[in-house]
Amino acid sequence: MAQRRWWVRGAVLGSALLLAPVGAWADKLTELEQAFDAQQKSLQQLQQEMQRLRQERSTQQEEVTRRVMEVEKKAAEAAASSLQTGFDPWPGKGFYLKSADGQHRLNIGGYVQTLAQVEASRNEEEVNAADKTAAIGRHRPSTLKLQRVRVIFDGTIYRDFGFHIEPEFTAGDIGTRIETGFVSYAYAPWAKVTVGQMRHMYSLEETMATQDLDFAAQRSFVVRALAPDLQMGILLSGGSSLVNTPVTWAFGIFNGCGRVDQCPGSVDNDGDKEYTGRVTASPAMPFGALTVGFNADFRTFNMVRGKGATETNGVTVPVAGTKFHRFNPVSTLGDKFGGDGNGTSSNGFLINGDRVTTGADFVFDLYPFILKGEFHYADQERHGLGAGGSNLTDLRMMGGYGTIGYWIFGSKLKGLLANGRYEHLRVEDTSGNFTAAAGTNEHTLTVKAGTLGLTWYANPNVFVRANYLLTDVMPGRNFVGVSNVTQGELAHQGIAELMVRF
Predict the structure, then answer these.
(1) Residue that terminates a domain, selected from 14, 47, 79
(2) Are residues 208 and 322 located together in one domain of the fold?
(3) CA 187 to chain centre
(4) Across 328-355, average pLDDT
(5) Is 345 left (phi over 0), alpha (psi -120 to 50) or beta?
(6) pTM of the model as a whole
(7) Across the chain, what does the average pLDDT equal?
(8) Residue 399's closest CA among 343, 346, 342, 329?
(9) Are 87 and 46 part of one and the same domain?
(10) Short-list 427, 487, 496, CA closest to 455
């Protein structure tokens, strides 16, 4: 019995011993679960805090980026609105003001051109008594002359819109005048429109700025006689590449009455318009650079309500109180060649009606040589100028020039250029024999001239030039304004030029 009780007590005690750790482990497990839950909550809180911090940082970064962009934008706007100034040494550019973004620019330039003209003394012994008075009247004195003084304002607005204003301060009796003034819009390199007073896109020399000419004083007398000059009008122009050949083109419609100061109120005084076109091409060459140009011009010289077309250079002018104009070619220095053989400043060929002019030109540059040339042909109507109001045969004017230049050293940036030019002009009627109109004594006019020159470019904006001109006019009595020094036909003249551009 006693043993049985001990066994039962041992079993109970063993069971208690076995069961005791299970409760402790359960408590421990509960503690662990609670600790894990606490850590989970803490981790979630940390994750939430990290997410909040990340969002705050992102917001701050966006704000910083926005503020930086605002500052950069304001800086760009401030830079764009600011002006940069300087001097562009390239010829004709001058001083400039421009916006930092390049959309707006103003160039202020110009030039002063002075001449010294020397004419050989009159050889009165070689003219007869009847011509002696005329010879004295034709004498041009040697003189120093302020040829041109101009200030040029040129610029762009919003990159595509341009303007050009060029007043002339040596305009004689009328004082200052507008030489050129126009505005332009460039839609694309192949499409540009220009409106205002400008030079026609006709002839190689006519499209060159005065300060870029190869010889002193003026363009060749052939170009002055047959190429149109400054006019008020509208010009469409552009350039592109055709079969790997650079091509430019221009087509213009003009009033045909000269500069605005020659057209009262800047109004076309006869209502007839002038049409001009020019195309150039620069084909690839195995050596050197070649550019060829082709030109065409149509205009009308009719008297309308007593008024007619005029030209800037005074070659063709209306004759008041009549129904016709006079065509009167002039020399490089403005001496009149005439046409009626009377030896007076009012002579010239009578014209009335349409004129069609065509021409071609070229430039070939193979350093140190440079070759240039032009040829022009014009057919001029002479309506109602014959007996009883009949038509005279058309007037035929033709001529050209050839130039050769050689760089002794350097270039236009700094160098010495020797060049020469030969010119020829012939005016006749298409029948070959003039039919005399009432009160005239017209003769075929032939002009030949040679020019030798030497130009020293001290820098791109300053050069000194000396030219010797020999002009032969047939018949000699038509040469008004210079002395008859050899056989009554040849005239010797010298010109020295100083050009300062800025």
Answers:
(1) 79
(2) yes
(3) 17
(4) 72
(5) alpha
(6) 0.78
(7) 81
(8) 329
(9) no
(10) 496
